[in-house]
Design a protein that fits this description.
The complex is a heterodimer of chains A (92) and B (475).
Chain A (H helix, E strand, L loop, with lengths): L3 H10 L6 H18 L13 H4 L15 H7 L4 E2 L2 E2 L6
Antiparallel strand pairs in A: 1-2
Chain B lengths: L7 H9 L5 H19 L2 E4 L1 H17 L9 E5 L26 H9 L2 E6 L19 E2 L2 E5 L5 H8 L5 E6 L5 H7 L2 E4 L19 E6 L2 H11 L25 E5 L9 H16 L3 E5 L4 H19 L17 H12 L2 H14 L5 H22 L8 E5 L15 H5 L6 H5 L4 E9 L2 E9 L4 H15 L1
Parallel strand pairs in B: 2-3, 2-6, 9-10, 9-11
Antiparallel strand pairs in B: 1-3, 4-5, 6-8, 7-8, 7-12, 11-13, 12-13
Helix pairs in contact in B: 2-3, 5-6, 7-15, 9-11, 9-12
Classes of the chains: A mainly alpha (92), B alpha/beta (475).
């Protein structure tokens, strides 16, 4: 079983708040799932080129025109804003 | 026959011959939804006003005489696909009040055809699940037995078609999310080749797997919708230049592979019988049936559940309470991120973010993510070998969609591993980016069972053509 501290460490990396109860359930569920992943060790070893490298697609870095008002609609979705700016909490 | 029971083809004929109008049809569907959906919960939102406005527009087009197959035909869209100006929740509390600022490419295409959009359908939260029980807004019940699940994640889309609450629907398939609910609800569901349909405007789940496709009453209907939505889109770099053209491929003389690993253990005996009977009928119709081996099948589920959550952990990082969606007050910026995700995401989404973060974290990457990518290549090679035309390979694979029919609501809800097994036959070909369809093949009591037909990349025509013949044979 993976430890409570390990779950808390992963949750911190994922920037995810978990309750005490959720941490306990996560210990149990993650352990069962990670145990199942051990099956992968049985698979034959092969050398591959990563999928991503095989199928890259590039586009020009250019400004594309969007429908008028689209920017306003997108900014309007922000939970906290002032004029045309999205407001965030202080970082430091 | 009621209007809501008609297929796309039949409705199109009716509209052409002025037997009814799109407004008549749309009203009939809205009425049907009102009457039926309180017991099913297939819809998360219904667009009464805009659907009728769509219908009026369509009727004008129809009067002009110049209109396509989907013009004036009422459909519904999975709530992970954006329809401009309408809520798009992905069945998550974190997007409960999110309004889509633009149309997904598939929606743009349907609107250009004159489609009538009735509303948005239920799904597992962020399309993660096999039963819609992970929806933040309640489970979708199976129209054939309301104590059972509709499957998932496109359970709302499958149930809406099965209960005649939409003529056709769009769903999305990452590990089986179109084919599995189609099988459990007794409708046709097509998962196209990776890259055949643009995902622009689909809320991302796992980007190397996500694909949009149709659910419909018949194979012919699924084909009509696929034809309308497929093709290259500059807004999705993974979409391919692909011009689908429907033509008839005779089942007679085709080589059909039956993967022996899919009948090994864990399959319901009655499901196996239905699938074997369907295969026998194809043989009687002149197809050559051969047993094939896909030896890496046993690793597919583990491979998928490393890759899928890894991609999720990156894709869902954007829901941080800043740009859109739920935002929970915190003492500083990090606190806002952590609390918004903690309050907004449901159990399964959190679980997958945690698994993915774990697999990608320092010290574990090679053992999990890198290993899974290698296994994915093995699985891809299995299929490539089976289909290899230079080695007298098969044309199509026939196999089950789901190891069991619709299960009881709640039965697997607390056991993630048991739920993941529901997709054991739909996941492997997704890892190889292949297309597949679920066609109703029989019933166990009231519960439908689908046959899965898998083809090589961009062989949708062969799949649809053969599926249509199988559909006729099994009726």
């Amino acid at each position: 079983m993976i430890s409570k501290e390990e779950v808390q460490h992963i949750a911190k990396l994922a920037r995810l708040e978990l309750t005490e109860k959720e941490i306990q359930k996560m210990q149990k569920d993650l352990s069962a799932i990670l145990d199942y992943f051990d099956l992968l060790k049985k698979a034959p070893k092969i050398k591959i080129q990563p999928m991503e490298a095989k199928a890259s697609a590039w586009r020009k870095d250019e400004v594309l025109l969007r429908d008028e008002g689209r920017a306003d609609e997108i900014i309007a979705q922000a939970p906290n804003k002032k004029d045309d700016y999205i407001k965030v909490k202080t970082i430091l | 026959m009621e209007l809501t029971e008609l297929t796309i083809k039949q409705v199109h004929e009716g509209l052409k011959n002025k037997k009814f109008t799109s407004v008549d049809l749309t009203k009939a569907y809205l009425e049907k939804i009102k009457k039926t959906d309180k017991d099913i919960n297939a819809y998360l939102s219904v667009f009464e006003e805009s659907a009728l406005a769509d219908a009026e527009e369509a009727d004008k087009k129809i009067t002009s005489g110049n209109f396509g197959m989907l013009c004036g035909i009422p459909c519904a869209i999975k709530d992970s696909i954006m329809v401009e100006g309408q809520k798009c929740t992905a069945a998550s509390k974190i997007l409960e009040n999110y309004v889509a600022p633009y149309d997904a490419t598939v929606i743009k295409k349907l609107k250009a055809e004159g489609a009538v959009i009735l509303g948005k359908t239920n799904t597992d939260e962020f399309t993660m699940g096999s039963s819609t029980e992970n929806s933040a807004f309640g489970v979708t019940k199976n129209p054939h037995d309301k104590t059972k699940v509709s499957g998932g994640s496109s359970g709302g889309s499958a149930a809406a078609v099965a209960a005649n609450m939409a003529c056709y629907t769009l769903g999305s398939d990452t590990g089986g999310s179109i084919r599995q609910p189609a099988s459990l609800c007794g409708v046709v569901g097509l998962c196209p080749t990776y890259g055949a349909v643009s995902r622009y405007g689909l809320i991302a789940h796992a980007s190397s797997l996500d694909q949009i496709g149709p659910l419909a009453k018949t194979v012919e209907d699924a084909k009509i919708v696929f034809e309308a939505i497929h093709g290259k889109d500059k807004m999705d770099a993974t979409s391919k230049d692909y011009n689908f053209e429907g033509s008839d491929v005779e089942l007679k003389g085709l080589k059909i592979g039956v993967p022996k690993e899919y009948f090994a253990k864990g399959i319901d005996k009655e499901v196996e019988k239905i699938i074997r009977d369907a295969i026998k009928k194809a043989e009687d119709a002149g197809a050559e049936i051969v047993e094939v081996s896909l030896p890496s099948t046993e690793f597919a589920l583990a491979c998928y559940y490393v890759i899928d959550p890894s991609e999720i952990s990156a894709n869902l990082a954007r829901f941080d309470g800043i740009k859109y969606g739920l935002s929970v007050e915190g003492k500083d910026l990090l606190d806002v991120y952590v609390k918004s995700k903690g309050h907004g995401f449901g159990e399964e989404v959190k679980r997958r973010i945690m698994i993915g973060t774990y697999c990608l974290s320092s010290g574990y990457y090679d053992a999990y993510y890198k290993k899974a990518q290698e296994v994915r290549e093995l699985i891809r090679q299995d299929f490539a070998k089976a289909f290899d035309p230079s080695a007298d390979g098969i044309d199509l694979l026939f196999c089950p969609v789901s190891p069991f029919p619709a299960f009881k609501i709640g039965e697997k809800a607390d056991n993630p591993m048991a739920m993941y097994l529901a997709d054991i036959y739909t996941i492997p070909m997704k890892l190889a980016g292949l297309p597949g369809i679920s066609v109703p093949a029989g019933k166990i009591g009231n519960l439908p069972v689908g046959l899965q037909i898998i083809g090589n990349h961009f062989q949708e025509n062969k799949i649809l053509s053969v599926a249509s013949q199988v559909e006729n044979m099994l009726q």
